[in-house]
Design goal:
Structural class of chain A: mainly alpha
Number of helices of chain A: 15
Shape of chain A: globular
Strand order of the largest sheet of chain B: 1-2
Order of helices and strands of chain A: HHHHHHEEHHHHHHHHH
Largest interface: A-B, 37 and 41 residues
Oligomer: heterodimer
Distance between the termini of chain A: 29 Å
Number of strands of chain B: 2
Strand content of chain A: under 5%
Mean pLDDT of chain B: 87
Number of helices of chain B: 11
Helix content of chain A: over 70%
């Protein structure tokens, strides 16, 4: 009886969640829509990071490179080429993917400490270049006054992305679609190879796997989805600041993934929600919210190595719910 | 002109060496890159400011500030880092990164975001004439400090019992533990000592450039470049790497002023491609 009700709840849960996500912006003031958009974008950024860290064991401290490149590419397309969100997104993903291929080509040759330091170096390198290329990036001022596009599909009313509630649904659909694709990648043979490499590069090599090629593709895919997250940021903020390329931005998906739990597919999503909510709450009362985030991160690293999702999954009544975020062996 | 620029490069190099030697020493023994090293250096500069203001003497703060930094590092090691030695080393790194966030924002909350200038000690405000050009005495002090620290480190590692134990632990942790060395104690000693060195760096730089929120990030990247160029875990490599980078930066400003900010990364990536174990590294990472 108990088991049956548990599985019933479990089957019902995705529908309840989907329903809540649809009703959410209509039931609450506009501010909550923009808060949710921030969570969606952060969730996608962190999901892309965790493809690399959680599944392939690559701890990158320079993931903002691809997020920032995605944001700048989208902004430049919207400003100078065409006011088309589809084109902006496609270009962002393509450019970030290529950038990640180039940088990854060097980075994946190294492991652990060397890999980490190299990603820090590339992160700073791209930031410095972005700072200097004032003609392209606007330097310290960033890119401002970016037109927010409308989407007109035949037979449908025009979708105005400058409306926060509309943009909520738009970013929700894009992020959900990207999450499904990432889920498919993780579940594929490629995803399993990544986990084998994470657990032991040597064993993977002995199995005749091309370790470097797999890691490079993983790194580039992570860059591609980070670029998508960056592109989503542009119509939301109406501008791109240099901060999107900064070292501290590279830290965000790391914090988010650790908070939520790197060994659970939906861990980064939960982490993103916590991250944005903590940020919003602390910013209302104190100036330096990263201090509190640091303290939370210390506590997580020390006491919750599985993150919040890992912690919740320890308790039997919640295990069925956490099952959706199943632990990846 | 060339000599002056050479001396300027030398002073940058010696400052970088103070940071990189601690970083490489900690890596050599603990096998973890101390992400918080730049933040500890910044903390050293701010402590110097506060102690100098409080006591009215730079010399008191030069002695006291690095000790305070070492104490802060001791607390981090004893109550946090030590509990993670049994886990994957990513967790140690993430812990140190959390402390970067904490220290950076805590200093902003405590000292504000504007730059805090520390007056140069009265005895060293003047300048000395070198080949007809004035050169600040204080910069000469920094140049002298570097080789002194290098020599002291060399003697401490090779001449004292604890130094030889540290070397043993860095070569083979298990074997050092098996012959009865207290490896966890050596870890603490090395971490605290490395932090003390970064505190000295912060205290020395405070009268020159003041204490400011961004200084930790700036120096940690440079120090990464130094230890990569010299070879992770090698003290002499850090010395050589610091010399190389300091001089490249000094002469780079003369020759390619527009590209100077890119140079450290260019060198670092070049070394990675050509000789990843660094000039004097013994490989492995």
């Amino acid at each position: 009886m108990k088991d049956r009700s548990a599985s019933f709840v479990r089957r019902l849960l995705p529908f309840l969640a989907a329903g809540a996500l649809v009703v959410y912006p209509l039931a609450l003031p506009r501010f909550y829509s923009s808060l949710a958009i921030e969570i969606f974008i952060m969730a996608l950024f962190a999901l892309s990071f965790n493809l690399m860290f959680g599944y392939a064991g690559m701890l990158s401290f320079g993931h903002a490179v691809f997020y920032g490149i995605g944001a700048y590419t989208a902004a430049l397309v919207l400003k100078h080429a065409a006011e088309s969100m589809a084109l902006a997104i496609a270009c962002s993903m393509a450019v970030s993917f290529v950038a990640a291929l180039v940088i990854g080509f060097i980075c994946v040759r190294f492991t652990r400490t060397y890999f980490i330091m190299l990603t820090v170096a590339f992160g700073e390198l791209v930031y410095v270049i972005g700072h200097r290329l004032v003609g392209v990036t606007g330097g310290d001022d960033g890119l401002v006054g970016i037109p927010i596009p409308q989407i007109s599909l035949p037979g449908l009313p025009v979708i105005d992305l400058s409306n926060m509630r509309v943009y909520y649904y738009f970013s929700l659909v894009i992020v959900a679609a990207a999450a499904v694709v990432l889920r498919i990648i993780v579940k594929s043979r490629f995803g399993h190879v990544l986990r084998a490499i994470r657990d032991s590069q040597q064993r993977a090599l002995f199995l005749g796997l091309n370790v470097r090629r797999h890691l490079l593709l993983c790194y580039a895919l992570a860059g591609l989805f980070a670029g998508l997250a960056g592109a989503l940021l542009v119509p939301f903020e109406g501008m791109v600041s240099l901060e999107t390329l900064h070292f501290s931005t590279s830290g965000n998906p790391i914090i988010v993934s650790i908070l939520g739990g790197t060994q659970f597919f939906l861990g980064p999503v939960v982490g993103a929600a916590i991250f944005i909510l903590v940020k919003d709450t602390v910013q209302n009362v104190a100036e330096f919210w990263m201090l509190w985030m640091g303290i939370i991160l210390v506590a997580t690293v020390m006491f919750l190595p599985g993150g919040v999702v890992g912690f919740v999954a320890r308790f039997k009544p919640f295990r069925s719910a956490a099952g959706i975020a199943k632990k990846e062996e | 002109m060339i000599l002056i620029q050479f001396l300027n490069g030398l002073s940058t190099a010696m400052l970088l060496f103070l940071l990189a030697s601690g970083l490489t020493l900690i890596f050599g023994v603990l096998r973890v890159i101390n992400f918080a090293h730049g933040s500890l250096y910044m903390l050293g500069a701010y402590f110097t400011y506060s102690v100098a203001v409080f006591s009215g003497s730079y010399w008191v703060s030069l002695l006291a500030a690095p000790v305070f930094v070492a104490c802060a590092a001791g607390l981090i090691e004893r109550f946090f880092l030590r509990r993670l030695y049994v886990r994957e080393h990513e967790f140690q790194l993430l812990l140190l990164y959390s402390f970067v966030l904490i220290i950076d924002d805590a200093t902003k909350a405590f000292w504000g975001t504007s730059i805090r200038m520390v007056p140069k000690p009265a005895a060293l405000t003047g300048s000395i004439e070198i080949l007809g050009r004035a050169f600040p005495t204080y910069t000469l002090l920094i140049i002298g400090l570097g080789p002194l620290v290098a020599l002291a480190l060399f003697l401490a590692l090779n001449g004292t019992k604890i130094g030889r134990q540290v070397v043993a632990a860095s070569l083979d942790r298990e074997a050092a533990s098996a012959v009865g060395l207290n490896v966890p104690f050596l870890y603490s000693v090395v971490f605290v000592f490395g932090a003390w060195l970064s505190g000295v760096g912060g205290a020395v730089v405070a009268p020159l450039r003041g204490a400011s929120p961004g200084m930790g990030m700036e120096i940690i990247i440079m120090s990464f470049a130094v230890v990569i160029v010299g070879g992770l875990g090698s003290i002499w490599g850090a010395f050589l790497g610091a010399l190389l980078l300091g001089e490249v930066l000094a002469f780079g400003t003369l020759i390619v002023p527009n590209l100077i900010v890119l140079l450290p990364y260019a060198i670092m990536i070049l070394i990675f491609l050509v000789r990843p174990q660094g000039l004097l590294g013994r490989g492995g990472g």
